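so ive been stuck on this for like two days lol. basically i have the seq below and the ligand is zinc ion, smiles is in there too. i just want the complex predicted, nothing fancy, no docking runs or whatever. if the output looks off dont worry ill sanity check it later, just need somthing to start from for the group meeting slides
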Amino acid sequence: MVDELDIRNKARQFMVGLDLSRIDTNLSVYIQKVKAKLKTEEMSEGDSGYTLTKRDGTSTIIVNELERRERQRFSACHEIGHIVLDLSSNHKETPPWSYAKREDNEIACDMFAAELLMPYEQFKADVDKAEPSFELVERLRAKYVTSFSATASRVAAVTDYPCAFVTMNSSVIRHASRSATLRTLNAWIVPKSPIPGGSVAHQLVKDSERSGESSDVSQDVWFQDWPQGYDLIELAKHYPEYDETFALLWFDGDSGPEEPVNTFSAKPLEDDGGLKELDGVLQFSKRTKRR
Ligand SMILES: [Zn+2]
């Protein structure tokens, strides 16, 4: 089990005192701090990166030069995660008995990478300037040089709106990133469940359309065990060629419930089927901030 709070704290400790003003073009502040060099080489498709560490503690991080720049940056920061967190990497040739362990290490390093690439304070300040939208995601993605889904997940996670970003293929929900406000309201999106009927995303897949939006999607379409009577805004995109579908959901202004919804059913303590949310909010502040 990945201790998300611990990972995010370690990433932020690692970043303390570093000059982050140019990380959009240059990750050397991070690379130097772990006594590493960054190199690129041609790797086979699907391989993103690896690290060679010498006995003297210096390392070389190698990323796949055939991948897009944003992906290379993410891989470099993921590898830094392996070094700082001292988590072994086993990107391939994984024996079946270590599968769960490997997954945890990789998830932890992905969280670490998201923290490094989208520093919380600065990223949140940018998110707070506008209401959630794909335009905002595109703008921040260009600024932070990150992938669309990593950026959108972090937008949803750090915004003060009750907001969620859902990634899907053409039939099933893969992951949902929710803001602290939405979590506090007990809005729960079931991972691995079918894209819900009545959602904009479902309609796009059905009609093979690429984008759509609605400002009155009944929230019980998306959230499990919720009362009716609240409407959500849903923006959705569908990319048939990549088998990817995305939805950005939020409550506008004061249109959502004020109090946590009592859903009566047992929820797992950690959700999202092992894929931890790319959240920027530490848990202790979450508890004290809202109320
Ligand atoms: Zn890894």
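Residues 78, 82, 89, 91, 106, 109 surround zinc ion (CB under 6 Å). The chain is about 35% helix and 20% strand.
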